[in-house]
Structure formats: C-alpha cells, structure tokens
Amino acid sequence: MTRTVHVPLGARAYDVRIGADLIARAGAEIAPLLHRPRAAIITDETVAGLHLGTLQTALRAEGIASKALILPPGEATKSWPHLTRSVEWLLDQRVERRDIVIALGGGVIGDLVGFGAAILRRGVRFVQMPTTLLAQVDSSVGGKTGINARQGKNLIGAFHQPSLVLADTSVLDTLSERDFRAGYGEVVKYGLLGDAEFFDWLEANAHRLRDDIEARDHAVAHSVAMKAEIVSRDETEQGERALLNLGHTFGHALEAATGYSQRLLHGEGVSIGCALAFELSARMGLCPQETPSRVGAHLAQMQMPAGLRDVPGELPDDETLIALMGQDKKVVDDRLRFVLARGIGQAFVSDAVKTADLHAVLSQSR
Ligand SMILES: NC(=O)c1ccc[n+]([C@@H]2O[C@H](COP(=O)([O-])OP(=O)(O)OC[C@H]3O[C@@H](n4cnc5c(N)ncnc54)[C@H](O)[C@@H]3O)[C@@H](O)[C@H]2O)c1
Ligand SMILES: O=C(O)C(=O)C[C@@H](O)[C@H](O)[C@H](O)COP(=O)(O)O
Ligand SMILES: [Zn+2]
C-alpha cells in the first residue's frame, strides 16, 4: 500500500509518497513532472551500489534517459567542494530550468542536492528519493537544504521545497543497524515535541520498525504528516517550526565538536540532545523528574545514545560546547534559544536557560 501525505504550500505544494517498492515505480511517478524525457540523478557510492540500477531501469521503462553523479558517502560530503562538484556536473549535463534533479540517498545527499538545485540557474525543481529512515521521516520534507561550515551545522543553505518525495520504505532493509537507529532519533523526536500518543505507540512498537513493514510505514507516514502540518503553517521557521529543532542545539554542537565524522551521526546527536533537553527542562522545574527518566528509559531500551558519555573519544569542555551552540540558527541577539518541554509532547521555545543549569546538565551527562 502506498500512503500519500500532501504538503499544502500553495504554489510550492507537493506530495510525499510512502510505501514499498516505490523506486521500482519511480518512472511512472516522476514522468508527469517532466517537460522532456531526461533526469539527472545525484547519489552516494553506497546507495548507488544498492539502488541506483533499480531507479535507472524504472526511468528507462518510461522512456526517461538518466545520468548519475556518485559522491562519497558520509556527512563530510555536505560541504563546499561537493556542492561545487555537483553544481558543475549539473551544468555540464546541461540541466535546464524546466528539468528535474533527483536526490537519491540519505539526508546528506538530500540536503546537498536540494541546495544545489536551489542555486542552479537560480532554482531548478528537484525530487527527493530518501533512502534512510532519517531522510524519510524528516530531511526529505520541508525544504531545508544546505551544507555544513567549520563554524557549525547547515550554516549555508536555502529553503527550497522539492516537487515530489518518493519514500520507498523497503530500501530501509539494506540500511545498517547503526544508521537505522540514528534515524530513530528523529522519529522519537516527533512524539517528544508534540504527540504524547505517538510516543506511547513508539514505547510499545518501536522495536518492530526494523522488521515489520506495516509498523515502519505507519511510523514514517505519521512523522511526515506531523512535519507537513508544522511546515505548512511556518515554512521558513518564523515560530512554530523551531519545535522540529528539539534536541538540535545540543546535537549540532556535538556534531561540530566531533568534526562531522563517524564518531557521531546526526540522529545520534539528536537522541542525546532530546535527552538533555528533557533533563534541562526538569532541572528548570518545567516538568517532573519522572519525564526525563521515562525518555531516558525508552532511549536505553532502543539502544540509543542519551548522554555525552555515549560519544566515543574526547569531547571539548562545556565552555567550548556552549560556544559552538552560539552558532545555532535559533540564536537571537546573541541569546541562545532552546526547545524545552513541559511534558512529553509539550515542547516550546525558551530563551530563559541559565548558563549554570546548562553546565549542570552537560557535566551530569559526561
Ligand atoms: N533538511 C532537513 O530538514 C534535515 C532533517 C534531518 C536531518 N538532516 C540532515 O540529514 C543528514 C543525516 O542524514 P542521514 O542520517 O540519512 O545520513 P546519510 O545521508 O549520511 O546516510 C547515512 C548512511 O547510510 C547510507 N545509506 C543511505 N541509504 C541506504 C540504504 N538504503 N541502504 C544502505 N545504506 C544506505 C549512506 O550511504 C550513508 O553512509 C545530516 O546532515 C542532517 O543534518 C536534514
Ligand atoms: O525541518 C526542520 O525545521 C528541522 O529542524 C528538522 C531537523 O531535524 C533538521 O536536522 C534540520 O536540518 C535542522 O535545522 P537547522 O535549521 O537547525 O539547521
Ligand atoms: Zn535533525
């Protein structure tokens, strides 16, 4: 069964199609968007080895010719050199303003290619074909695109909505345990930020997501529907959309501190960040201590990292981590703003965090 979530953004509205074997049906899904029968695909080496052939065959079956650029896998690819390489390759392919670029891969490829599409000839359309759990529940939807800087995560980018998202949930079978688990960090985030019932469901069912396609499709579709609702009300993060950043002030600082390396994946940073945001909320008297304990118990049950102690190797001191948080895009007038919570599913944005509480939460988790 294929589920469809519509993202109602007026002239930039699009569908997110979710279900098994969508890559094999991609030609028919994409053909109506094309003005001429050709498409440029950008992907990474791992995904190319596993799924590019299926995509190109599906396009060919509909008479669509395609060329592919294959980039190295990993967070380091979300950087200037690979942006330059991608955009220059697209220009070499003579991709025109009415053509379509396909991003086939995880959040790294989606963010990079989406940004490339945003700036190519001042904006060409693109299709997200997310192949990780993280990309299917989060990064392929909502139009945040960009690359990392030495100074911080996603600091160079643009809002550029895709024209279509095809989330083939069967491709998650080939994902490593670690990447699947990291993606779960963004799934659990939705329950924690705004849907206590979904968190209850995850407590009971999350262990089934890896092997049970029905449970997986439900979790992906529910997450995407939540994101679509928030994004449709606040496309460019003037307010409510910041809730989707739960856990990210901590997580992004940790990713920068570990050099965007395999030491800490984005979803792992988000998992740690969510745990710390709830600890901070309890310390500030916003919610009872039982709430972070419940969050921590679920993360432990799912074998998710939940503290600084779970990051392998040395981390910088608290001052350095807090300085890294200073580059967060939620900062206003030099003041950090955190997503905190009054309970599970009751997140809000606050600029009232005392540095002493921040230090206490960070050092307690080392
Ligand atoms: N734009 C947004 O709204 C948004 C939201 C969340 C995260 N992000 C960004 O997403 C990125 C993380 O994305 P990610 O976790 O998907 O990482 P990723 O793109 O690096 O993918 C993780 C790994 O899985 C491999 N892979 C991908 N699909 C596979 C498959 N089906 N089978 C086997 N291996 C596969 C990749 O090659 C890679 O090695 C971060 O840069 C983060 O900042 C963006
Ligand atoms: O879509 C959003 O909005 C999010 O915040 C989703 C996050 O999971 C994602 O990691 C996003 O890229 C972070 O945004 P940023 O503005 O803090 O870079
Ligand atoms: Zn994220």
From TrEMBL:
Transmembrane regions: 100-120
User: Can you list the GO cellular component terms from the UniProt entry?
Assistant: cytoplasm
Amino-acid positions noted as binding Zn(2+) in the UniProt annotation, renumbered to this chain:
E186, H248, H266
Domain 3-dehydroquinate synthase C-terminal, by residue range, is 183-331
Give the family this protein belongs to, as stated in its UniProt record.
Belongs to the sugar phosphate cyclases superfamily. Dehydroquinate synthase family.
Q: Where in the cell is it found?
A: Cytoplasm
What this protein is reported to do is described as: Catalyzes the conversion of 3-deoxy-D-arabino-heptulosonate 7-phosphate (DAHP) to dehydroquinate (DHQ).
Q: Which cofactors go with this protein?
A: Co(2+); Zn(2+); NAD(+)
Known InterPro entries for this protein? Dehydroquinate_synthase (IPR050071), DHQ_synth_AroB (IPR016037), DHQ_synth_fam (IPR030963), DHQS/DOIS_N (IPR030960), DHQS_C (IPR056179)
Q: Identify one Pfam family in the record.
A: DHQ_synthase
Q: Which GO terms describe its molecular function?
A: 3-dehydroquinate synthase activity; metal ion binding; nucleotide binding
Q: What is this protein called?
A: 3-dehydroquinate synthase
Catalysed reaction equations from the record = 7-phospho-2-dehydro-3-deoxy-D-arabino-heptonate = 3-dehydroquinate + phosphate
Q: Which residues form the 3-dehydroquinate synthase N-terminal domain?
A: 69-181
Give its E.C. classification number: 4.2.3.4
Q: In which pathway does it act?
A: Metabolic intermediate biosynthesis; chorismate biosynthesis; chorismate from D-erythrose 4-phosphate and phosphoenolpyruvate: step 2/7
The UniProt annotation places NAD(+) binding at G107, V108, I109, G110, D111, T131, T132, K144, K153
Mention one GO biological process in which this protein takes part, according to its record.
chorismate biosynthetic process
Q: Which gene encodes it?
A: aroB
Q: Which domain of life is it from?
A: Bacteria
Q: What does the cofactor field's note say?
A: Binds 1 divalent metal cation per subunit. Can use either Co(2+) or Zn(2+).
Question: Keywords on this record?
Answer: Amino-acid biosynthesis, Aromatic amino acid biosynthesis, Cobalt, Cytoplasm, Lyase, Membrane, Metal-binding, NAD, Nucleotide-binding, Transmembrane, Transmembrane helix, Zinc
**HAMAP family, from UniProt?**
DHQ_synthase (MF_00110)
